[in-house]
Design a protein that fits this description.
- This protein is mainly β.
- Helix content is about 10%, strand content about 35%.
- The longest helix has 16 residues.
Amino acid sequence: MRPHVETIQETDYIWHAAELVAGEGRASERRLSVDEEDGSSSLRIVFHTDWGRGPGIHHADTEYYVLDGEMRYGDRVIGKGGYVHAPRGVPADAVRFAEGTRILHYREYGDAGFDPVDSLAAPRWARAAREDVTVHDSAGMEWIAVPNAGPMPGLFVKYLHIDPVSGFYTRLVYAQEGWADHRLAHHPCYEEAYTTEGKMSYNFGDLDPGTYFFRPARVKHGHFVAMEGGTTWLMRSDGELENWYTQNEWVRWGGDAVNYSPNGGRMTWSYSSHDLAGGASWRSDEDLGVLHKALNYQKEQGAPDTDYAQHGTGADQSLVAIARAFDLARLGEGHGGGEAGHAHGDGDGGTDGHTHGDGTEHAHDGSPGHGHDHERKRVPTHDALGWPPPDTLEHEDERTAGATTAARGGRGSVA
């Protein structure tokens, strides 16, 4: 599988000689993300000379999108916004790129392999896709308003290709200035995008032209705000992009520092996402206003939603959760399940002394037993804390649900 790549600017990548088999000309590529197991890859390519190759069969589902310049597919010439999808195992016509052309190039479920053929009449592979090659001039396509645009209108799409079997689809997405989503979303499929125009701010950083991400399934992301002029991406996902939302999220982590405390010794530290915000939201007042508009719109529609606070504002929910856990742990202490609890400490009767809930006191003197058994402190369970067990949180449509539910003896696998 491909690794998680988030908000990286393409200029941070190095150039390689473009891996374009059986072509004539010179080109370079930046490898935005690569699956080292099957060769799938997302590339940004520039052609230093005119470049071309004749008809042939790609070993992977292959896509070309023209950022700038000119592409010729067969007899058709397309410029900026030109798009070609050539299914794996299906004969594709000759392609030509003019010198200086910049493209996005994607290969899915296969590597850069390419078998030249004499004509488009060459036989398809036995298990090739049932589709033909798709060609679009996206500049001439109409933007379609997304019917479920998250919490507020202002999101538009141009569908470039949808696989009729897998649901894998490629589209251009435009968020108009001021479009926002105040929640975190995650999906049952992977999602990747390259920003072609504009700017958007969100929890992982800013998306501006040339920014790329590849986000595996179930990675939470959000708090989107489209900036001045709006923003446009070319976006791909390997299935239906269903949105599952999370609000009022929190994270806390910590550990024992070994050799980097102020005095060089050990110290215990703990941070939360709330702490990292420095006691105030990292959002501007303008951003917060837009996010609250998204919240209010959602409420007006009667959709499921709750109030929220940006990290750094309001109560630190991680501390609230920890305090609740401690309270429940204290309530769980007791002798043999009895009602009178006790607290251990350094009582007057000895170093291991403790006082009972009824006020009496005794010391442990090291002799075997002292007439009653102590019940082990009960650790609060997920149920007691109000949190369902993690393995019950999987949506039935998630691709990993089959293995998980099978291990629990639950439903059968989900495709």
